Predict the structure.
Amino acid sequence: MNQRPLRTGAASHRRVRALARPLLVCTGLAAASGAVLAQTPARAAAPTLPETVVTAGRVEQRLSDTLADISVIDRDTIERSGANSVADVLSRVQGIQIARNGGPGSTTSVFLRGTETRFSAVFIDGVRVDSQSVGGAPWESIPLAQIDRIEVVRGPAAAVYGSDAIGGVIQLFTRKGEPGVAPYVGVGGGSRGLFKAEAGVSGASGAVDYSLGVATERSRGFNATTTPGFDPDDDGYETTSGNLRLGLQINARQRIEGTLLGNVMDSDYDDYGYDPANPVDDRNHHKLRTAGINWRSQWTDNYRTNLAITDSYNLYRSTPNFYQTETRQRGYLFQNELQFGPHRLTADLERREDQLDNAPGIGPFASPGVTGKRGQDGVALGYGFQQGPHTLQLNARHDDDSEFGGNTTGSAAYGFAFTPAWRATVSAGTAFRAPTLYQRFSEYGVASLQPEESTNYEAGLRWAQDASSVAMTVYRNRVRNLIDFDYASTACQSPFGCYGNVGRAQYEGVTLTATHRIGNVSLRGSFDWQDPRDLETDKMLVRRARQYGTLGADWRLGEWLLGGEVVASGQRYADADNTQTLGGYTLLNLSLARPIGRGLDLLVRLDNVTDKDYELVPGYATAGRVFYVGVKWSPRF
């Protein structure tokens, strides 16, 4: 692409005004707010949420015991969403908004609690996925068809995970084999020539469990750009993915597990300078691969360990306007967990190795290539306590970077259960994000860049009883040393400007969620009021709405499961000066599902029923009304 970095952060010094906006606007929507929860499939009853999660503290624990603000999305919810990308699924989770330059396969940003997309630590089966070019996970490269469950932790978690987890952690899991044999085959199609096909099998026999899946998807897409000067053709995509997961239970206390995931995606995009007499087929090429092996040991009734080696690789290449970047990451993790009575102690040793390879551009104004490596060594300690109405969690971690030195982070959280149904929580934590290798060693890079650092405070209140719940979380996260592109800087090789620690930002807000069941109708919803703000200019950060919410209902009528969902967003600003606005929107999505044979399920969806025209990025269109119908055969033997 040979593009200069875009300005996305803060500018220079100005006092921040105190925020005193009332939160009462949120309370009227409390009954309509709720997490994206695991929904009941059409042909069998299932628990609303998994009993345990692993992302909150990097150890397995009951969901009800965690102090983190966490959401879980299971496979049934993913399948019934009809979504074409992981980002589309996440956009229905409280605290998350997205921006995308067109359809699937185009550049995608995921804003967790309004933070930059690079401020979320992302894992697939425990394998870290990140880009050392622009920073953040390559969301457009992650294949939704291979994902079985998603856990979203909102709030900083650097004291557990190290660098990146300023806004939170998002972990995606592939399918795991369970006793018996469970094959599946699915096909579907819809608007704009959409075609999906998937097949796989999972199961367990004796000491071995396994899961294997492959999928393909293609669409002719829609014209992604709305600005004159770009190619007006449709911008389609094609993707092929697969995953393999094998586990061996050596004995009652020893288990080895390996995971492998891969995806290849090609998509169209529109480059500027379209010439009708000489059209050019501009293409994006994405590759993603993750691999990991774990050895879990229960040495005594109270002491267990986990030894993990992980590896990830992601590539992005554009043609014919050539640009190519590759990121490789290797991780080594040794976890220790000691449980005695109400106390839990954890101690982790971790090493992370990053490598960036940016190929030289082509042409007289092309950027030179960039190659760099670095390592981070981390030591993390944790203490948890739970007894009666009290729950306490303390974490501390020190990371030493081979380039800029050490960084120490910590967190503390406390919860008190007033009654079995009511619980209040408070927490505080610090986090950091190390500069990418591109930000330090490219022609725009400055080797002396320091980590972006944050301090977060939050409080929560939750009531839950049977199928009903209401929760509220209030948070404030301040980031200093924010890395932004400074056009006036002469500290690097580029005459156009350089990266620098020139900004400060504040991300604060309130999240309300609720669920309720009335007879055969399940209600859910969420509402976010947030104020992601540049503290240097006192302007709203771009492409994030101050108000965002969802309201959904599922009605079981015999074997039919009818669903409806409303997604509403306030306006967003398209520029850092807050002079250009992207209008708010309200979308209506409808679905129905039912079994049509033994192990055979039907899903029909109609998204954006009113064909609402809106933009998430200025100059880039969204899909409009989308119809989808799919069938899936998934018996269990």
